[in-house]
Amino acid sequence: MFESFYEDIVVGETSEFGKREVTKEEIVDFASKFDPQPFHMDEELAKQSVFGNLCASGWHTASMTMRILVDDMKDRRFAGMGSPGLDKLEWKKPVFPGDILRVQSTPLEKRESASKPHLGLVKTETVVVNQNNEVVMRMVSNMMVLKRNPS
Amino acid sequence: MFESFYEDIVVGETSEFGKREVTKEEIVDFASKFDPQPFHMDEELAKQSVFGNLCASGWHTASMTMRILVDDMKDRRFAGMGSPGLDKLEWKKPVFPGDILRVQSTPLEKRESASKPHLGLVKTETVVVNQNNEVVMRMVSNMMVLKRNPS
Question: By its UniProt entry, which InterPro entries does this protein fall under (chains A, B) (predicted)?
Fold first, then answer.
């Protein structure tokens, strides 16, 4: 069922994928559930805010990024086994309705798990850019990945 | 309109708040939009996974945490002006349907902004616990906060 494993990850090799359009409806829907601050909910109040326009919750941007990553993992039949967390998450620019997001992903480090012979650990930089090639978000995440050949 | 400002933040002082019940419906709804992996979507497949049961996407847990934080900020009329990002985010344990989440928040550091006389910068540890007092998530975030008295 999986086709892409720990052994296939090349440190330093950047891949780019995804094309997700951000809608006003989704920004407001996400914010009303999880981040009900005026600049994510109300266009008029957002225009008076530091952002200048209605913009997505940073957690919404992170969640849309996750969807792009999961779709790519499924396309590649990648043996990702979840994440213990992030070393860094930076929201660099606001994400507005109509923006189109894509992801640039680069493995920074990989190593075999000391305790689990079937797993490797991979540290990856994920950069999210909009249609103007502006970086809107950047994160460094850790992921567990199955080995094709357990040691 | 605001009542709680940068000057009111006490480094090292932990406050606890929030009481959010996690539902199966919300876990599946969030996952179907943002993190469609089997262990967040399908009870039977989840039972065969490393998690042992249907569990929330880590991004869903982070988003529910944000809602708890925003509700608390509104209750306190806190002058938070958004976040440039996180230094760390750790998913420590799975979050299951029926879990009840609450937040323990501790300011770790505060300093005045060098460039913006009306703002301070606060680094905060946020720990999310379930009804058994198990830590399910931990993050260290940075936030901009208005001063009551700009320097």
Answer: HotDog_dom_sf (IPR029069), MaoC-like_dom (IPR002539), MCH/BMMD (IPR052342)
